[in-house]
UniProtKB/TrEMBL annotation:
This is Epithelial membrane protein 1. Belongs to the PMP-22/EMP/MP20 family. InterPro entries: PMP-22/EMP/MP20-like (IPR050579), PMP22/EMP/MP20/Claudin (IPR004031), PMP22_EMP_MP20 (IPR004032). Gene3D superfamilies: 1.20.140.150. It is found in: Membrane. Its main location: membrane. GO terms for cellular component: plasma membrane. PROSITE patterns: PMP22_1 (PS01221), PMP22_2 (PS01222). The keyword Cytoplasm does not apply. It is a multi-pass membrane protein.
Amino acid sequence: MLVLLAGIFVVHIATVIMLFVSTIANVWMVGSSNYGKVSTGLWLLCNNTCEQLPVSSRDEASLKAVQAFMILSIIFSVIALVMFIVQLFTLEKGKRFYITGAIMLVCWMCILIGVSIYTARFTGRVPGSTNPYHGYCFILAWICFCFSFIISILYLVLRKK
């Protein structure tokens, strides 16, 4: 049981770190231009230097929603990690980690909404580049989506023994 708890804890910490990286780094879409690789993220457009991401007025609300949901997912994931530690030391034997699992399900939903909006609105668009493809941050976000769902289900069924 202790090994299972430790494994879940390690995967949860890895998920939090990957969420931070995928939200902060600007490699959601990558393309090539005359000057080399061009990458865009949630915040900046990077070529040789990074500058504010140019977004049309009709896409601005979508980008703000993606930013908000990714930040919310980080917040909920950290809160769930703290709640897991608190519940680990305060729950009686035989009780389940319902609160932690519910918070991780909210985190999972935030990741789903954020990455889905990005996929629907911004896939294939890198200003001033050709041959755009998804970068590692986009892939990390989907991996975090899977991990957060698995962790939340494990928290919901896990009993403290």
